[in-house]
Amino acid sequence: MPILGLPEKEYMYPGFYSCPGCGEFLALRHCLKALGDKTIVAIPAGCIPTVAGLFPRISYRVSVLNIAFEAAAAGASGIAAALKAKGVKDITVAACAGDGGTADIGIQALSGAAEREDDLLYICFDNEAYMNTGIQRSGATPFGATTTTTPVLGKRQHKKDMPLIMAAHKIPYIATSCSSYPQDIFKKVKKASEKRGATRYIHILCPCGPGWRVDVNRTVEVGRLAVRTGMWALYEIEDGKFSLSAPSRGLIDPSKRVPIKEYLRLQGRFARLTEEQIGALQEWVNKQWESYKKMIGE
User: Fold this and answer.
1) Which of 14, 178, 240, 249 is 20 to 30 A from 52, comparing alpha carbons?
2) What's the pTM value of the predicted model, to 2 decimals?
């Protein structure tokens, strides 16, 4: 019997080198199930290529091209152009990068690919810092989180909103997901892979045990709390139309959201937040949801 109704075939070999309880590789596992055999993946520097193993071994059962940190989308664009020149139409080209390689170092290549309408799927695995190189802050690190390169009281800026930045490019499909919701990931990646002719973008929140300083047995729980508190909304923007996904749909009503304190208290990276700062962060979350409410026309 397939687990959670998802395909049984695995596209990651057992024994790869991720940290225990890694949200990123839980998400990647289900992305690859959705993408299937006819896929070429471009991966820049980060956890994804490092954990894959050392040459000549590889942890993935699909074709993979290692790309420079800043060039995941550029590499995927080149692969897509080569397939088009050869008349190959049944292979999905995917770029899989972390938040540093997406929101910071790689944003220029991603924006360029979207503007050119290159036929590729870009998936950002967002663990909210440069985890592979020692937990440095990125543009996707949230307010109040401590890293090895933030002030002692944590980051002073809010998280960069990459999905809505990509929405400004008017591409046909944008979605958010979370590693704690495998069926949501599978459905959205499958849908995105079947839309062709332009760039598609999926942004997946992936809790990181060491970087978030959370018990590795609780990464799924933490990811679900990120959604249930409204810190991370699950939605799609398809052909310009915004819609909340099932796990987030009822959270338009603020009384249905879990207080964000329940999410923050499980993570050592937020240990230095004061009650006043937690209140300010809760207010920011509430304002985010007011904007979502307007986007769905309520």
Assistant:
1) 178
2) 0.97
